[in-house]
Amino acid sequence: MFKSAKNALAGIFITLFLSSSALAAGQFDGVTLLVGTWGGLWKDNQVENIVSKFEAEGGKVEFVTGSPAANFAKIVAARGQAPFDVVEILAAQVKDYHELDVLHPLDLSLIPNTEFLAESRYNEWLVGSWETQEVICYHKDKFAEEGIPVPTTYRDLVHPKLAGRIQFPDINSGGGLTGLAGVTFAEGGDETNIEPGLNLVKEMNVLKFWARGGETMAQFESGDIIASVVHAGWCLRTKKLAGQNVTTVHPRINDELVGVASEGWWGVMKNSKNAEAAQWYINQFISSDYQLKMAIKTGLVPVNQSVFEPMADDPLVAEMIVLDPEKVGSQLRVDYSKVIIPDWTDQWNRAIAQ
Questions:
Q1: Do residue 210 and residue 341 come from a single domain?
Q2: Would you state the torsion angle of the CA atoms of residues 332, 335, 340, 344, taken in this order, to the nearest 10 degrees?
Q3: How many domains is the chain partitioned into structurally?
């Protein structure tokens, strides 16, 4: 009888132990999720706000850092076997990802926060992650002192008092393709005819073609430039961090379009063994909480439209960034399926980079 009691107690102990272990088990126990993204502040924001939540579910996150171009090159070098489960993709790369056939179809029921995104910002293959608003950032004091009219279009940057005092993105920079597209469409060109845009850039008499957006902040601070074509986040940081009295203009493109948008996406890799976890990660990235923190810190525009209203509580953000969903939807968005990027680059090199 004593032995039977001992066996019964042991059975109860084992049952309780197994039950508590089951309760303690997380959704992603033993999963190591590989995330392809930028390094620096961009990665640090994800570590601070998303990684701990994944770890609470029993998983681990490892980052494969690099630019979207560098990370795509890793896929090509590995013959389509991506060294990450989920990766950030620029709008200009979407065609390349589809042509290489490396994307895993998404189960949008696992990404419920897509309900806060415009319908154009998610599909069966990709989910939007962020946007930029490409603007003319100008120094209000310098323009006023020298009697330079506040620009409303890119062509307004062709002004004798602005000669040699403007920055524009280099074709190979993060803002290069979008910047060139903006001036091209504003001058009557399109994805297949960029000559009008190239001609306008030449007329601007640009001081420097920036490779990194941070160069805008540095050159405003040094006084070398008083205007720059750059995304609104860099203009905002120039005001906040460098103390320069700058603001943005969202350039009029034509009678229907005002402003220029650039888009970022998340995609899950076809060879991933952790597709469910990857989609969980995307859902966290587009959550209202994360998108608001990201937007306030970086000046990027959230894809989660529920964030627009609280963003407007920051007067500087409200001044520099368009937060009306209807106006956001009326910004120029390039159809990169029509763009032959090597051809754009070749024409740029022949016309501009001489």
A1: yes
A2: 0
A3: 2
Q: Are residues 124 and 227 in the same domain?
A: no
Q: What is the mean pLDDT of the chain?
A: 92
| pLDDT digit string, tens, across residues 255-303 | 999 999 999 999 999 999 999 999 999 999 999 999 999 998 888 999 9
Tell me, yes or no, whether 144 and 252 share the same domain: yes
* Structure tokens belonging to residue 93: 């790369």
In a domain, 64, yes or no: yes
One domain, residues 123 and 147: no
Kind of pairing between the strands at 246-249 and 208-210: unpaired
Contact 250, 259 (CB under 8 A): yes
Range of the domain at 88: 32-131+263-328
Residue 82 in any domain: the answer is yes
Report if residue 17 sits inside a domain: no
Distance between CA atoms of residues 56 and 26, nearest Å: 7
Tell the burial category of 348 from Cβ atoms under 10 Å away from its Cβ (0-12, 13-18, 19+): buried
**pLDDT one-digit tens code per residue, 295-337:** 988 889 999 999 999 999 989 999 999 999 899 989 999 999 9
Exposed, middle or buried by CB within 10 Å (0-12, 13-18, 19+), for 209?
Answer: buried
* Spatial distance between the Cα atoms of 167 and 230, rounded to a whole number of angstroms: 8
Q: Which residues sit opposite 247 in a β-bridge?
A: 138
Residue 221 inside a domain? The answer is yes
295 in the same domain as 285: yes
**Of 124, 100, 136, which Cα lies nearest the Cα of 265?**
124
Alpha-carbon span 55 to 27, nearest angstrom: 10
Same domain, yes or no: 69 and 79: yes
* 58: CATH: 3.40.190.10
d(CA 343, CA 97): 19
